[in-house]
Amino acid sequence: MSYALSRPSSARRSGLLGIVVGAHIAVILIVMAAKTVAPQIMQMPLIVDLIQPAQEKPPEAKPLPVVKPQPVQTRPTPQKPVPVIEATQSTQPAPAAPVATPPEVKPAPPAPEPMSQARFDADYLKNPAPSYPPLSKRMGEEGKVVLRVSVTPLGTAESVEIKTSSGSQRLDEAAQKTVRIWKFIPAKRGDTAVQSFVLVPIIFKLEQ
User: Fold this and answer.
1) Domain assignment of residue 198, yes or no
2) Is 192 inside a domain boundary?
3) How far lies 126's CA from each of 10, 25, 155, 159, 184, in Å?
4) How far apart are CA 61 and CA 65, in angstroms?
5) What's the domain count of the chain?
C-alpha cells in the first residue's frame, strides 16, 4: 500500500506567502512607529516677579547745637621804650665815598687773516700731464687716482701720497712720478705763503 504526498496548490502557496509578507511589514511598521515617537516635554512658562524694595525714608537732619561765642579778653600790649637819638654836631668832615674803578677792558683779539688754498691748475704753471704706461695701454687699464700733495711755501711738492688708488699700480706710480715735479701756487694766510695740502685727481682713459 503506497501513499502519495499531495502538493499544495498555487492558491494556497500564494496565500501563505502573503501572510508572511504582511507579518514582516507589520513588524517593520511597529519598529518605525516606536522610533518616531519622541517623548514630549511640556514646557512651562517661566514667570519672574520683580519685587521692588521698600523705600526707606531719609533720616531727618537734626539741628546742631548752637555754641555761643565767648568774649575774648584782650590784654593791653606793653609799650616798648622808644630809643632817644642825640644829635651832635661834629667839626670833622665826613669821609669821602670810595670811587669805583672802571673794569679793565681787554682788547679784542685780532680777526683771523683770510687764507687761500694752494692751486695746481693755473695755466702759467705749465704742468705736464702724466704719461700713459705702454703696458697699461696694451692691457686696456683705465682709472682715476687721487693724490694728496704737501705744498711748500715755495710752491713745490714736498710729498705726494696716494689717497685713492686707480686699481692699477702702474697708473698710480706714473701719476706720482709726474706730480712730484709740478709747480704749485702756495697757500697764503693774508699775504704770507704757508705750508698746506692739496688733492690732485689724475684720470687715465684710453682714447676710443
Assistant:
1) yes
2) yes
3) 142, 128, 13, 20, 10
4) 12
5) 1
Rounded distance, CA 15 to CA 180, Å?
136
DSSP character at residue 124 = G
Structural domain of 157: 115-204
* Residue 177 covered by a domain: yes
Residue 20 lies in a domain: no
Give the CATH number, domain containing residue 177.
3.30.2420.10
Q: Is the pLDDT of residue 71 over 70?
A: no
Beta bridge partners of 189: 115, 192
| CA geometry: angle 92, 95, 98, nearest 5 deg | 170
87: CB partners within 8 A, 6+ apart: none
pTM assigned to the model: 0.46
pLDDT one-digit tens code per residue, 110-164: 777 788 898 988 888 899 999 999 999 999 999 999 999 999 999 999 999 999 9
Residue 8 has what pLDDT? 54
180 vs 177: CA distance, rounded Å = 6
Cα–Cα dist 119/184, whole Å: 6
Distant-in-sequence, close-in-space partners of 12: CB < 8 Å, separation ≥ 6: none
CB contact at 8 A, 142 and 178: no
